[in-house]
Amino acid sequence: MQRIVSIALSVLSVLLVGASACMTYIAGYYLDEYETYAQPLKFSICFFLAEFVLIIINVVLLALLLGDFSKRKRLLVVSQTILVTLIICLTVILYSDFDKTRDKIQENNGDVNLFLSQYSGL
To answer: 62 with 10: CB under 8 angstroms?
Structure first.
């Protein structure tokens, strides 16, 4: 049971870091085009890097749990749960800043889908 929970936590953390990577990528476009409105996203790369470090630690804990290197499996799962909670908090903070920036850009008649124009040929 602990292995299943550990794997599920790892998958959840990978999905959250993927979402943060997407938001950070789009934040780069917003910072380039709407620098005055995109100030909340100025440190989005720091959030992403912090999450990336946490996911590396999470994967190490998963390897310790799956490899039977530690006798304290419950402690490893609790540690993993704390790390995933931190990743969730960082992702929510980043999304909140991202949402505020999108609202400011829309209020000032800006194009929030600017990052899509390079793919759609507009």
So the answer is: yes
